[in-house]
Specification:
Bound molecules: pyridoxal-5'-phosphate
Order of helices and strands: HHEHEHEEHEEEEEHHHEEEHEHHEH
Structural class: alpha/beta
Helix content: 25-40%
CATH architecture of the largest domain: 3-Layer(aba) Sandwich
Shape: globular
CATH topology of the largest domain: Aspartate Aminotransferase, domain 2
Number of strands: 14
Number of domains: 2
Radius of gyration: 21 Å
């Protein structure tokens, strides 16, 4: 079976982790944490980095830093991971959804303005499968209506919009370093910002809101969302070769596209002329005219030894949110279609050309070519 993803861990990761183990700095204090925070912030063109335990809590803390009032609204794409909606809901606010752009699968920027009300305080931008959102129209709306931008760049390490790195656009930006992300710490996340006040708050929330002036005295409620030095050691080693990792992802993307381009009824990932796509996952969408949905396609691919993953199911189609009275009777046709018809092919950093050939042959055979 060709796995959908496999992390690429090298000698340097081992060396740095060994250094932690031998030195005894295995918790959330240690030199790798600060170095990873600084270097990641620098890589993305931001001032402050705050490492946290995963991408989900990075989003939760990011929303909290904005100091929103309960029932304030945050506009976000329906087509994303539930972490985005949870971050808004756990802060007592309301997610307001927009559909996806059918070509890039990122949020359809033409649908944002009509969703803005006097309660709207922020837009949560999510780059999808390695392709950036169309940022300029979003930034213009943010300026016009005085909205904050929360950027979720978990799937877009090193991706660029008009030459600027994803994660460098938000008032506050979030990353995940889960094992399937382009650089990984196993579990892990980071918040980036240029705003010193947000950085201070995020550091405090991450660490139980211990006060600097008096340690076990608390004036706010915090969390233990700390990353360990061990994890940061892996992250730093990964970051030191991110260029090579991104080149590999882009190579995988190119290899797939060359081989699948001619197949009718199959929509492949794109790269808009304003974008650098890092092809985090190579997502394909079957035309409904093929009379096959992604679930059936995935099953047939599995029989051929190819592992895949389904696309996100939109937030407006989640039973838990209906139960909470959210998004009832809302419809987003693009997100609904790609959720039903989309899947991603093996896209891991260990993938070989031979495996790509095998995957593409299986795809062609199933689609009758
Ligand atoms: C992976 C991911 C997250 C969540 O990150 P975890 O580290 O798994 O909590 C959030 N947003 C997006 C877009 C992701 O792909």
């Amino acid at each position: 079976m060709i796995p959908v993803n496999e992390p690429l861990i090298g000698e340097k990761e081992l060396k740095y982790v060994t250094e932690c183990l031998k030195g005894g700095w295995i918790s959330s204090t240690g030199k790798f944490i600060e170095e990873f925070e600084q270097k990641w912030a620098e890589y993305c063109g931001m001032k402050y980095g705050i490492a946290v335990s995963n991408g989900t809590v990075a989003l939760q803390v990011a929303v909290r830093c904005l100091d929103l009032e309960s029932h304030d609204e945050v506009i976000m794409p329906t087509f994303t991971i539930i972490s985005c909606a949870l971050a808004v809901i756990y802060n007592g606010c309301k997610p307001v959804l927009v559909d996806s752009d059918s070509e890039t699968c990122t949020m359809d920027v033409t649908q944002i303005e009509e969703k803005i009300t006097n309660k709207t305080k922020a837009i949560m931008v999510v780059h999808i499968y390695g392709h950036p959102c169309n940022m300029e129209p979003i930034l213009e709306l943010a300026q016009k209506y005085n909205l904050k931008i929360i950027e979720d760049a978990a799937e877009a390490h090193g991706a660029e919009y008009k030459g600027k790195k994803c994660g460098g656009f938000g008032d506050i930006s979030c990353f995940s370093f889960y094992a399937n992300k382009i650089i990984t710490t196993g579990e892990g996340g980071m918040i980036l910002t240029n705003n010193e006040e947000y950085a201070e708050k995020a550091r405090s929330y991450r660490n139980l809101c211990f006060r600097k002036d008096r340690r076990f005295y608390h004036t706010e409620l915090g969390y233990n969302f700390r990353l360990t030095n061990l994890q940061a050691a892996i992250g730093l080693a990964q970051l030191e070769r991110i260029k090579e990792l991104i080149e590999k992802k882009r190579w995988i993307g190119k290899m797939y596209t060359e081989r699948l381009r001619e197949i009718k009824g199959l929509q492949l990932p794109t790269e808009k002329d304003w974008a650098k796509n890092v092809y985090w996952m190579y997502g394909i969408v079957l035309d409904e005219k093929t009379n096959m949905n992604a679930a059936e396609f995935a099953m047939r691919l599995k029989e051929a030894g190819v592992d895949t993953r389904p696309f996100f199911l939109g937030m407006h189609e989640q039973p838990i949110f209906h139960k909470m009275g959210l998004f009832k009777d809302e419809h987003y046709p693009v997100a609904e279609r790609i959720a039903k018809q989309g899947l991603y092919l093996p896209s891991g950093l260990t993938l070989t050309e031979e495996q790509i050939d095998k995957v593409c042959d299986a795809v062609k055979k199933i689609l009758g070519r």
